[in-house]
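[Solved] Which block belongs to which protein?

Original post:
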Amino acid sequence: MLLLSTAYLAPVQYYAHLANAEEALIDIHEHYLKQTYRNRCIIAGPDGPVALSIPLEKASSHAEIREIRISDHGAWRHHHWNAIRSAYGHSPFFEYYADDFLPFYDKPAGFLIDYNEALQRLICSLLDIDTPTRFTTSFISPNQLLSDTLSVPLADLRATISPHCPLEAEPASLPAHFHPQAYYQVFQQRLGFLPNLSIIDLLFNMGPEGLIILKNSIY
């Protein structure tokens, strides 16, 4: 069973593990961490990787991630959708899926975990990922993971799947690891293949075949 953080349009690595897992827990009781995939994704723009961050309402330093609300500051929804359309408007499957994603950028959002979870459900549906997921009921500390108190073993990827963590840093305890598989990208001729971008890069470029890439990326 995987232990994952919530994530905004999470990277391919996240969904590769999810697609190959028996079950996954999403931690909603951890403290919010800045500059992570919890409220940030990375897409491929014409000139290279582009980071898109969701602005958040200020909260207590001890606030749990489930308490964090999304801010509408800076017209971020308009900015994100324009960036996504600019990056993938000419990709093979953008027009096919655009109407599924547009509602997420048409109206204000509430809690970050609810927004991320709704996007994740959509993506799993489009890619036929049927791994059961559920929220944690309390915070699971690293000490608990090292003890024998848990009813099932957990593979903790909360800190591993991060913009600041190299792919090879996945825990040695994992039964299988992420190895990015190359696939068609719109700007590949100019930029070369860019691994581990947001899952929408894989979805808009490869469509339903994205599941094959995800399945073949864990071994």
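(Second protein starts here: sequence line, then its structure tokens.)
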Amino acid sequence: MGDSFISRKDRIIASAIEIISESGLASLSTKSLARKENMSEALIYKYFGGINEVLIEVVQYFVRFDESIIRTVQAKKTSNIEKIHEFFDTYATYYENYMEISSIMLNFEELLHNTDTREIIAECMQKRNECLVNLIEDAMEAGEIDRTFSADELKCIMMGILSTQLLDRRYYDHGSTLKEEVLGSVDKILLLVKAQG
């Protein structure tokens, strides 16, 4: 599929994500976007009212994928422990195939301080965490995993693995894929807490 099938607005959003990934959230401006898109700053205002509108669209783009991943995992007709595995498999695959989008997750704190994105990103991360906690609680109720850790503790451990692996990839190369490393660690945790029956 060629660039002609992608709208100018979508290309601006993709460029904004690349700028955030390459240079950080503070470097996102109409000037940097115009330079990246090889257009005038005035043309950006044809599509967006300003840089905050661009940032809102970037965060909403991130949220749409997040919601899709959660719906897909919840709809699976498998055991709860397999859904937890699928949760991390899907996120790791997504971030591996679009590493630039991980910069949105890694800029979570800054996005919380922006009044235009605070509620959107907070709700997104809350839903993600609630989904994982619910999967863990369901696995505990079904006797699939024990209660060595609380559901919230397990959520923190496993989400910490994903976040750390994403951050590690920002500053050095790995011999294995993100998916291999995340699932390798998450599966060890799940094996550790697997209920002995």
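Accepted answer:
You had them paired correctly. Confirming on the second one: The chain has a mean pLDDT of 92.
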